[in-house]
């Protein structure tokens, strides 16, 4: 049985590959840039771009399970290729707000709804990993912390139950290697809600550096994001911060229910990634 892991350069995919190799499973890694994915020795790497269906048949050949990054534009082509390759079980990296969020003004909700909906309507077995905010989102602060030790951000009391990529990978490995996960959607968050200020404090502790959060206005923050050129995504990110300001994020019990142990805290994540901030 070969397990295909897409999104090979991503932090979650890397953790999934590590987890599968530790579990002794045969893995094939797919990335738009397989060389940059730097797969472990002995692991096959193939080029896959979900928006280019021609890259899929060779990657899916002989595959029984797939860890899939969502791509709304490519999902129909992916489903057709997977059905032609023998209908492997698909474990989709989805997002927490997919049911509760508003697709009319949130492109993340729209994208994940489209990917989930297409898989539900297909003949493929599926499992959805509905992840909350990734702890890796705070890597956006790494360049400023390395250069100056000062993070300029709005809403220091905005909360997130940030999830460690290793926790997402643990559940992905369970779903990819165990029985009884077909047709299930798992909400996955970190074990506690933390504010942006508390995240900065964890990074200071983990790196042994003085790190300061300098509060800026929402308008100043918008200006730093405007280079993306995606106004709706900028609005969405700012709205999420406003909505979580001073409001603890909901914590899902599902990681602990599935694995029998508590999820990794943000403080743990900061320890694990301290080198990125030094
Ligand atoms: N960031 C969060 O807080 C969060 C929370 C919940 C869910 N999510 C979801 O998790 C996914 C990853 O998000 P991210 O924030 O880590 O980073 P990202 O920059 O959106 O995605 C990076 C990953 O996506 C893969 N990818 C992108 N386009 C692809 C394509 N056309 N074909 C194949 N693979 C493609 C990349 O793989 P290669 O470059 O190796 O091909 C890489 O592994 C997204 O679907 C996002 O909506 C994110």
Q: Looking across the biggest beta sheet, what order are the strands in?
A: 3-2-1-4-5-6-9
Task: Write the CATH architecture name of the largest domain.
Answer: 3-Layer(aba) Sandwich
Domain count? 2
Name the hetero compounds present. Answer: NADP nicotinamide-adenine-dinucleotide phosphate
C-alpha end-to-end distance = 41 Å
Low-confidence stretches: none
CATH topology name of the largest domain, in short, is: Rossmann fold
The tally of helices reads: 11
Q: Quaternary arrangement of the chains shown?
A: single chain
- Biggest pleated-sheet summary: 7 strands, parallel
- What is the overall shape? globular
What is the CATH first-level class name of the largest domain? Alpha Beta
Mean pLDDT: 96
Description of the molecule:
The chain is α/β, with parallel strands linked by helices. The protein folds into two domains: 2-131, NAD(P)-binding Rossmann-like Domain (Rossmann fold), CATH 3.40.50.720; 132-164 and 189-249 and 265-278, 3-Layer(aba) Sandwich (Rossmann fold), CATH 3.40.50. It has helices at residues 11-22, 56-60, 75-84, 107-121, 142-147, 165-177, 196-207, 218-225, 231-243, 254-259, 266-272; strands spanning 2-5, 27-31, 44-47, 63-69, 89-95, 126-131, 150-153, 159-160, 184-188, 194-195, 212-215. A seven-stranded parallel β-sheet has the order 3-2-1-4-5-6-9, sandwiched between helices. Helix 1 packs across helix 6 (165-177) and helix 7 (196-207) runs parallel beside helix 11 (266-272). The radius of gyration is 19 Å and the shape is globular. The protein starts with a strand and ends in a 6-residue tail after the last helix. The structure holds NADP nicotinamide-adenine-dinucleotide phosphate.
